[in-house]
Amino acid sequence: MLTGLSHQARDAKSWPFEQARLLLQRITRLRLTDAERDLAATLFAQGKFFEAVQTLPALKKPVVFQCGYGASGLPHMGTFGEVARPTMVRTAFRALTEDAIPTKLIVFSDDMDGFRKIPDNVPNRELLELDRDKPVTSVRDPFGEHESFGAHNNARLRAFLDGFGFDYTFMSSTETYKSGGLDAVLLRILERFDAVQAIMLPTLGEERRATYSPFLPISPKSGRVLQAPTLERNVEKGTITFADEDGTITELPVTGGHVKLQWRPDWAARWTALEVDFEASGKDLIDSVRVSNRIVKALGGEPPEAFHFELFMDENNQKISKSKGNGLTMEEWLRYGTPQSLAYYMYQSPKSAKRLYFDVIPKATDEYLQQLDAFNRARAAGENGPAIDNPAWHVHQGAPPERGSPVSFSLLLNLVSAADASTKDILWGFLERYIPGATPASEPLLDQLAGYAINYYEDFVKPAKVFRAPDDRERGAMEALVAKLQALAPGADAEAIQNEVFEVGKDAGFEPLRAWFGALYEVLLGQSQGPRFGSFVAIFGIERTVKLIERALAGELVAAL
User: Fold this and answer.
1) What is the CATH number of domain 472-560?
2) Which residues are CB-contacts of 346 (< 8 A; sequence separation ≥ 6)?
């Protein structure tokens, strides 16, 4: 699927390919000797990646992509983006290297973190108060469905990622600590405690510096993750000593899940233990990445290739937060749009801040459909290989479907509005006439979009509708449009209808012409924007459109609202 693309990938301009090329440079720099790098460069230039991997065994080691998930709150759109974007870079890397170098994406859940803040969007919050400061995997599930709140949130995340078809390895912080997966690095941090402190302390306030330790012991008595200073260290025994909540001086091993690292040292320990090569993170974590990079080097490791993206904002331009539950959940997006439209939104301009609210879904959906159509036109024209810079290529992990939707989402929304359609069956009554031979089985994406359009219309468009009466010039133009439509030959297509609508607007003196189309949308559909009007009429039907105009001119639409 991803072979035969390395030549195009070398020249691709899209951001995932830019990151993939940097990642390939990293791999050769860290894994190969000078002589081996020269050989690899020669083979890579010839597209002989499989030969390079066979000749240079160090390239057989998987390239590790990682993303983290804070399990203290329910998954949201930012969480999805943290998986989608590394996946796009991974797909680009696989295409760049002919899929010869193995790769792995780790989704790491920070579910051993102490439960500090109770999310606003969960039930039984009083129950959660009883478990405050315990590891999230020791907090009771307020939904009563899983053994812990951490397990509940992990299951929610994995179900969605599985539904979308992501290829990933899930890792739990709790399981990794308890199974000994971080033991070697934890002992190294204990050994190099002073070096880690020298990096961390200057980043903290004076009061925090006085008690800071990279190790957060888990109280054997209460089970809480404690912000307790380390009183003594025993490198030989692999233990720390601290004062428990009741003041008892307690000694614990740093291994086996008895302690949890502070989050910046934890990040660094994970990168070191898992030998992570690539991690994407939000712009707000740039300083934290720098600090964690220094800790990795103090531990003798190599920091991963970093990619920083801008943050998503809610409808009030506030940063989306798991604990606040603002912005959109994944379930909410999927009530109104396809997973592919969401992935497209994640792909767009990752270094630009974007609003992530309900009103972005229709535009993202139609832009995704336009990109998919453009990809398939290029494929049908037999152009030199697939358009790997097209967003649809990245959204579909290198294998876009050969069919999109013959009808845009915005057009479906307006059809729902004009037809007052409450079911997909009603919509398909129009669509079958517009697209001869089309059925839900033959046009599955269109069928999905029809359902999304009904949901979106009922929840957002219908409550906001404001019909108005036409002014004198608009009334005259609409009466002329009725005459033009009635004079059209039976079966007139969308282009012929659009031409007539244009002519009527020009004859009526609308300047610019978008004022004419704006009047049609406001008077006939109760909204300020709409799809190409000729396409709408072609689907809705000329006779029905004429009746709709006549109802508007008679004041019935305003009165009904």
Assistant:
1) 1.10.10.350
2) 80, 81, 84, 85
Longest dimension (CA), the chain: 94
Note the pLDDT of residue 464. Answer: 87
* Helices marked H in 97-192: 125-129, 149-164, 173-178, 183-191
pLDDT value for 160: 76
Q: Average pLDDT per run of 10 along the chain, which is 561 residues long? A: 81 96 96 96 94 96 94 74 94 96 97 90 88 96 94 88 90 97 98 98 95 97 97 98 97 98 97 97 94 98 94 72 63 91 94 86 96 93 77 95 94 89 91 91 96 95 91 97 94 93 95 94 90 90 94 92 67
| Mode of pairing for the β-strands spanning 278-282 and 63-69 | parallel
- The neighbouring-strand residues paired with 170 are 107
Instruction: Measure the CA–CA gap between 319 and 366, rounded to whole angstroms.
Output: 26
Q: Name the residue type at position 95.
A: A
- What lies within 8 Å, CB to CB, of 420 at 6+ separation is none
pLDDT score recorded for residue 361: 94
Element (H, E) at 58: none
Count CB neighbours of 88 within 10 A: 27
So what's the architecture of 204-261 in CATH? Answer: Roll (2.30)
Preceding omega of 470 cis (within 30 degrees of 0): no
Specify whether the CB–CB gap between 216 and 259 falls below 8 A: yes
What does the pLDDT read at residue 380? 86
Residue 336: count other Cβ atoms within 10 Å of its Cβ.
22
DSSP code string of 453-499: HHHHIIIIIHHH-------HHHHHHHHHHHHHHHHSPTT--HHHHHH
Cβ atoms 69, 173 nearer than 8 A:
no
Measured CA angle at 496 (ends 493, 502), to 5 deg: 135
Q: End-to-end distance of the chain based on CA atoms, in angstroms?
A: 53
Contact 482, 549 (CB under 8 A): yes
Q: Decide: residue 388, CB within 10 A, 0-12 exposed, 13-18 middle, 19+ buried.
A: buried
Local structure of residue 524 (DSSP, 8 states):
I
Q: Sign (positive/negative) of CA torsion 524, 530, 534, 536?
A: negative
In angstroms, rounded to a whole number, what is the distance separating the alpha carbons of residues 394 and 382? Answer: 20
CB burial class (10 A; 0-12, 13-18, 19+) of residue 370? middle
What counts of helices (H) and strands (E) characterise the chain? 27, 12
SS3 label, residue 108: strand
pLDDT of residue 325: 57
pLDDT (0 to 100) of residue 56: 97
